[in-house]
From TrEMBL:
UniProt entry keywords in alphabetical sequence: Hydrolase, Lipid degradation, Lipid metabolism, Secreted, Signal
Protein name per Swiss-Prot or TrEMBL: SGNH hydrolase-type esterase superfamily protein
Signal sequence, renumbered to the chain: 1-18
GO BP, one annotated term: lipid catabolic process
GO molecular function: hydrolase activity, acting on ester bonds
GO cellular component: extracellular region
Family, as annotated: Belongs to the 'GDSL' lipolytic enzyme family.
Length: 361
């Protein structure tokens, strides 16, 4: 339900800030996360009727106490691993908190498996928090923050926070690429892309009006190469046309963000492109210590969703697989990707530019 590396760039941002603020000082970075199943840390556990959930075995089999937490992998997410390296913790899921909890001023994760840019994406999951839903919850958060610390201080906190968005995968995987759904019948690929871009512009602008200034949007990875899409190929190869649509999406969104940076005062919208990084891991798994990148460790049935159900067969050599289920990477793959990005933060010039403190609103 999401693309690999959805948290990578965001956690690099956190890492850079941690270098600037050693452990002896109080952390100053506040992060608000919006996204789908790769960014989720448990919101859907609180949605009683959601079919997009992972709070059952074998999810979490390699996590602490071997228990599922709502993360869509066998162990840790990229965010978990980088947080460990920095001695910090990831923001908690919004639905786990009391809406008036002081924790909301330190960061919140609104991500929800099955979520999309469009509100009709993922309808067959019954319950999920769409991007619009997540922004609605964030709006509630902004009101509580301002009630707690005052309008001026609240606005400053919101302006200086970092907003990470990993969204769009489900709009293809669980919407446009499903032939029985209306959008795939109603729109050409170009028209659908235009619809996504228009909706994103509205959502970015809404976040801006709520106080967000430093927004990082993670571009899509090669969706045509994830197991759920390979299963549609007679030769089990990557679907080229899907990857072409992804590249067009990334280009369109990057142009949109550049335009909004010009139009919205003090906006710092950053596009994080990791398409080629993910593709290299899929094309050259042995380069990263893996043996299998064209199918998943958990033997899933892609005809009924592709998640790792409790009655599924799970490989014993989980460290040799890039993918855990039909959509998500294994703990081992997340560890490799986290290490790569942790190293990148020390070598990428001006890597903290997008989150430089300012007080201009």
């Amino acid at each position: 339900m999401a693309t690999p590396l959805v948290l990578a760039f965001f956690m690099v941002v956190i890492a850079v800030m941690a270098v600037d603020h050693p452990p002896t000082s109080a952390p100053s970075l506040v992060t608000y996360i919006f996204g789908d199943s790769l960014a989720e840390v448990g919101n859907n556990n609180y949605l009683q009727y959601s079919l997009a959930r992972s709070d059952f075995p074998y999810y979490g089999i390699d996590y602490t106490d071997a228990k599922p937490t709502g993360r869509f992998t066998n162990g840790r997410t990229i965010g978990d691993i980088l947080s460990e390296k920095l001695g910090s913790t990831s923001p908690p899921p919004y639905l786990s908190l009391n809406p008036h909890d002081d924790a909301i001023m330190k960061g919140v994760n609104y991500a929800s498996g099955g979520a999309g840019i469009l509100n009709d994406t993922g309808l067959y999951f019954i319950q999920r928090m769409t991007f619009d839903d997540q922004i609605d919850y964030f709006e509630n958060t902004t009101k509580v923050i301002k009630a707690k610390i005052g309008e001026q201080a609240g606005t400053r906190l919101l302006n200086e926070a970092v907003y990470f968005i990993g969204m769009g995968s489900n709009d293809y995987i669980n919407n446009y690429l499903q032939p029985f759904l209306l959008d795939s019948q109603q729109y050409t690929p170009e028209e659908f892309l235009g619809l996504l871009n228009l909706k994103l512009a509205e959502q970015f602008t809404r976040l801006y009006l709520l106080g967000a200034r430093k927004i990082v949007f993670h571009g899509l990875g090669p969706l045509g190469c994830i197991p759920s899409q390979r299963a549609k190929s007679k030769t089990h190869q990557c679907l080229r046309h899907v990857n072409e649509w992804v590249l067009q999406f990334n280009t369109k969104v990057q142009k949109l963000m550049n335009l909004l940076n010009l139009k919205l005062k003090n906006a710092q919208l950053t596009f994080a492109d990791t398409y080629n990084d993910v593709l290299d891991m899929v094309d050259n798994p042995s380069k990263y210590g893996f043996k299998v990148s064209n199918t998943s460790c958990c033997k899933v049935d892609t005809t009924i969703g592709g998640l790792c159900l409790s009655n599924a067969n799970v490989c014993k050599n989980r460290r040799e697989y890039v993918f855990w289920d039909a959509f998500h990477p294994t703990d081992a793959a997340n560890a490799v990707l986290a290490d790569r990005f942790f190293s990148k933060m020390f070598t990428t010039p001006n890597s903290s530019k997008a989150i430089a403190p300012n007080h201009n609103g």
